[in-house]
Specification:
single chain, extended, 2 domains
C-alpha cells in the first residue's frame, strides 16, 4: 500500500498531484500529536487541566515538572502506538500519562510493571525508611481491555485495596480511559472530563473549534494542534509519526484478519474430517469419501 505525503496549500488545500486531503488539526493518537498537546512546556497547562478533569479531588495538581530523563526507553520505536509522558508535582507525586492505540495480550501486566518501575526508582542509597511518594498512572486507550459487560466502563479506577474495599496504601493509583466507550455528542457533554475526551476523540475531524470548547485552555490546545502553524521540519516529523500510526494500525488489522482466516480454515478442515470419519464408519469406499470431502486417501486412512 502506498500512502502519499499530505502537503497543504492553504487552509485545507492540496499540492499539485497530491490526492490526499490533510486535516486542519493533527491526530492526537500519534506520538507527535500526543507530545504536542500534553508533553511540552508550552502545553503543560493542557496536561494539568486534563489530569484535574479525569482524577478525583485528592489527586488534583496545580503544577507539574516534566521528567523525561527518568522515563523508560521511548516506546515509539519498540512498541509502536504507546506514547508516554512522565512528570512530577511539587509535592513529589509522580504522574505517568500514556496513550496506547493497540491492545496487547498482557496489557494489565505491562501497565503494572511500568507503573511499578516509577515506584522502584524512588529507592535511595544508604539509610531509607521506604516511605513512597504516590505514583498516578493514567492511560488513554483506543480499545477496550475487558470485554465482560461488568467491566465495560469508560473510566476505570484501580488502586490497592483489602478484601473489605479499604485502601491498603496510596502509593499506586491507575486510571484507564477506554475511549471506544465514549460516545457522547457535543450536546451531551456535561463534565470537564467529557469535554477533554470529546476533544481527543474528534480533534482530527474538526474544521473549527466547537462552541462548547470555546474556553482558553481548549482554544490553546486547538492552537497547538493546527497543522499549518508548524515549521516544515515539524510537519515532516508529524508525517513520519502519522505513517508509523497507520503502519501500526494496518499491521494489527492484518494480524486479526489472518488469525480469523486461519481459524476458519482449521474449522473447515475439522469439519471435513468429521464428515469423512462418519462416512468411513458407515462403510463407504475410501475413494468415494476422498471425492466427497476433498481429503486424501492417506488422511482418511489415519482417521
Amino acid at each position: 500500500m502506498s500512502i502519499e505525503k499530505p502537503v497543504q496549500s492553504g487552509k485545507m488545500g492540496t499540492a499539485k498531484g497530491d490526492t490526499t486531503m490533510t486535516a486542519r488539526y493533527i491526530n492526537p493518537y500519534t506520538d507527535f500529536g500526543f507530545k504536542k498537546l500534553f508533553g511540552e512546556e508550552a502545553s503543560k497547562g493542557h496536561l494539568v487541566d486534563f489530569l484535574n478533569a479525569v482524577l478525583p479531588e485528592p489527586f488534583q495538581v496545580a503544577d507539574l515538572t516534566f521528567s523525561p530523563g527518568e522515563q523508560l526507553p521511548d516506546h515509539c520505536t519498540d512498541r509502536k502506538a504507546i506514547f508516554d509522558i512522565a512528570c512530577v508535582s511539587p509535592d513529589g507525586r509522580s504522574f505517568i500519562v500514556e496513550m496506547q492505540k493497540v491492545k496487547q495480550r498482557w496489557f494489565k501486566d505491562r501497565a503494572l510493571f511500568y507503573a511499578s518501575h516509577a515506584i522502584r526508582r524512588q529507592a535511595v542509597t544508604g539509610d531509607w525508611n521506604f516511605r513512597l511518594n504516590p505514583v498516578i498512572f493514567v492511560a488513554i486507550l483506543d480499545f477496550e481491555y475487558d470485554k465482560e459487560e461488568e467491566y465495560r466502563e469508560l473510566h476505570r479506577e484501580v488502586s490497592l485495596k483489602d478484601q473489605n474495599g479499604a485502601e491498603f496504601v496510596d502509593s499506586l493509583r491507575m486510571s484507564f480511559l477506554q475511549m471506544p466507550l465514549f460516545t457522547k455528542t457535543e450536546s451531551e457533554l456535561e463534565t470537564r472530563e467529557d469535554k477533554w475526551l470529546y476533544f481527543l476523540k474528534n480533534l482530527e475531524s474538526f474544521n473549527d473549534i466547537p462552541a462548547i470548547l470555546r474556553e482558553p485552555v481548549f482554544e490553546s490546545a486547538f492552537d497547538r494542534a493546527e497543522y499549518l502553524r508548524y515549521t516544515p521540519d515539524e510537519q515532516e516529523a508529524y508525517f513520519q509519526s502519522q505513517m508509523a500510526y497507520w503502519d501500526n494500525i494496518n499491521t494489527f488489522k492484518y494480524a486479526v484478519e489472518t488469525a480469523a482466516e486461519e481459524g476458519e480454515a482449521r474449522g473447515e478442515a475439522r469439519g471435513r474430517a468429521d464428515v469423512a470419519r462418519n462416512l468411513k464408519q458407515k462403510g463407504l469406499p475410501t475413494s468415494l469419501i476422498a471425492e466427497t470431502t476433498g481429503l486424501s486417501e492417506a488422511e482418511i486412512g489415519d482417521l
